[in-house]
Amino acid sequence: MNKSLRVKFAGGREVVGILKGYDALMNLVLDDCVEYLRHSEDCYALTGESRKLGTVVCKTSAITTVNPVEGMTEIENPYETE
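Request: output the structure for the sequence above.
Response:
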């Protein structure tokens, strides 16, 4: 609890927020949430823009990954072809 998490959703959306709670089904409640926006043509590429969302409830069925913000480093995809 009270740790920063990065949550990725089916469809490509990605948010970072502070874990405030969860339930038995693993629905998450994140506070001070920020969404990182993606390109409209390429859902895997970030635009570098973000928007503040505040408090967010993340539905379990929409979540694809949950990672801690600290201790993780994003790397380039070695399988991506230009």
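The chain has a mean pLDDT of 90.
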